Amino acid sequence: MYGYEWTSQYGIFKLSVTSKLEKEIRPVFKEELDFFGMQEYWNYPDTTAPLLWAEGIRRYILNGECVAEAKGGGFYTKPRIEVFKKDLCLKAIDLDLLWSVNEGLIKGLEQKAVFFIRRQYEEFSGQGYSFVVAFSGGKDSLLVLDLVDKALPPDCFQVIFSNTGMELQGTIDAIERAKKHWSNLRFYEAASHMTPERTWDEFGPPGRRMRWCCAVHKSVPTLLKLREITGDYNVKAVVFDGVRAEESAARSQYGDVSVGAKNISQVNCSPILKWNSAEAFVYLLKNNILLNHLYYLGFNRVGCTVCPLSSKWRDSLSNSLFHNEVKTLLGKVERYAENQGVNANRRQLYIESNGWRTRMGGRNLPNGGNRVLENIINDNLIFQFTTSPKQNWFDVAPLLGPIIEVSGNRGVQLIQRREFSFTVDNSDAFTVKYAPYKQMDRYILSYLRGVANKVAYCIGCKACVVQCPTGAFTILDSGRIFVREDRCVHCGNCIVFTGGKGCLVAKSLSTTLGGNGMNLKGMNRYQTFGFRRIWLEHYFELGSDCFSTGHLGNRQYDALKVWLKESGLITPANKGEKSGNPTPLFERLKTLGAYNPLTWAVIWSNLAYASTIIRWYMLKVPAGETYEKGDLVSMLGDDYSHSTRDNAITSLLETLRHSPVGSVLKQGIPIAIGNSYKFIKQGWETPDALAVLYALYLWAEKTGRHAFSLAQLEQARSSDESAGMDPVSIFAINPAAFKEILQELALHFEKFIRVSFVADLDNVRLSTEVSSLDIIDLAIE
């Protein structure tokens, strides 16, 4: 929340509203200096107090001056220390003085957090929620636990440590010390019924975009333990967690209260969301609750022995100091690299270069690949299984609706009040048929596919169990799925929570073809160049004459022509003498200017129809998450060469970086990480009304429909072949807020749009007398 500035006192910084320094900071102890052999350069006492600080993890700071810096490092490489100041005499930092300098601000933060915790307790306790502190043994959960202990009576909450089985021993020891420190609290330990060794083999190694491990080994066991403690299968929980916005670009977008973010029965509350590491350490050091010894060794964060989100710094410390604890899972990463065809002499470099962390599917994994093939023959939807099923179809199918008739391997099932006949054939390859296909809407199709994936992949990890609102879905001790049909309301929560795959294992192991099924031909048309604001400004100023000025290079002009054509600003090459000329849209947007967000919203809307890579990004890359370039390249699948995919993603990301589309329209906010970037696809929270109206008229012009329902717009979001792209997909608008946006549009632009929402029926009508160009004229007027 506050920045900090260095004072003249040894090792003392002062928190301040006006201070500019806001880097992640951590205390440096004797144990860390000993590990790096710093006694050769510096003199320092044998003390348990910090000796100096590290900014940005690696830069050792004494009174505001960088006196040394750690370089390099990884699982197989120990960082080297570049010393800038030798012969220093370090001394213990006066923690009482550090506290006295910052006491006022820290107490203010503490009081605000305590008030927040009490307010959430008052709000949710009346709704029957139980209260949990999610405890990991790390500094942030230590801080949250101390704050909750101050805010609530001990009998009002439980403390649950989710033992993933992948923790370093230092964390396990910290848990025991915490139990003694807070001896009045009720501590419980939750753990998956499956070992990490098994889950890593079954799911494949986790990746940055494939973090199945958090659900299987942390959030799910926590909620199951709470059910056990309370004896309430339908228990709802408020979980106080130690999430801090400073930790990542993604977490900086979190709210302090998240309902249903982990699962439908859970509310996550983050009392220290806005605290930074400087504030956290001042509080912890003063209260003498820095109980995890790993921080003394140089760890900036604790957690699993091998984690796809950890830094090279932490990887190096983990494997150097705790090799025996790391080697099992690191060995699985090494085998994964081998399965990917990485040559033995490059394997360590591949791992240290984060190649394994970008894993998106099961390609080249021993148990990876698509286990269900789908065909449509004679009005039959046919699922053919390429491996023996893991579950019994008759056990899982009741999730869709009641089976009302069974005769041998045939039956009739009622799904969404419609009757479907089915056949389960195990005579050769396991095959399931459902008919009639023509009566299946996209929801029924999605749910059937989800059930097929559960039958093909489910290993009983229990991630689905906590998604069930009625206690109908359960996993027996044998690992078999059991559905209590008298409780099942066929809501589909246990299917849709994985993003449509129906099973967490299926999501982890299935392979992606052609960018999740899309035809990506022509995605690489831009020679790695993005559509830049200064290029649009150049074109607005000179029109077609800009191409002969030599202001840009030939390759840049070639890329610009493609972007302009796909944006609708120049006529295509097949228009004879008019080819390459400015369009009427150009004249209108030129009036608005290259800095105007509406200009770029219109361009982005047109690219939704004309640019393969932009359309893919809109349809296949979920909003609300953070992506690195490697993540997006992997998400495109393997049907195209790596260079083709890499070039296409480079063009996309360059557009996000160098135009208002990224930061203003929030389609991919660039966050600098060293020499590279991460991108937060946040979505346009407060879209320009005319931008949404323009996108709706584009929909009408492309589909021929000037009257349509919200359901038809929604259906387009899940269809790669839809002629139309709705505003929710184009601008990554929150679907829940879209209805309100339409109502606001109808209120202010009655001539152009009318909406009717009555009970479960809705209708949107656009004027047939109006074009998308007319909408831009509204802005010009």
From TrEMBL:
GO-annotated molecular function: catalytic activity; iron-sulfur cluster binding; metal ion binding
Highest taxon above the source species: Bacteria
Residue ranges of every copy of the 4Fe-4S ferredoxin-type domain listed in the record: 448-478
UniProt keywords, alphabetically: Iron, Iron-sulfur, Metal-binding
UniProt-listed InterPro entries: 4Fe4S_Fe-S-bd (IPR017896), 4Fe4S_Fe_S_CS (IPR017900), PAPS_reduct_dom (IPR002500), Rossmann-like_a/b/a_fold (IPR014729), Sulfate_adenylyltrnsfr_sub2 (IPR050128)
Gene3D superfamilies: 3.30.70.20, HUPs
Keyword check for Lipid metabolism: no
Pfam families recorded: Fer4_7, PAPS_reduct
Keyword Transport among UniProt keywords: no
Record's protein name: Phosphoadenosine phosphosulfate reductase
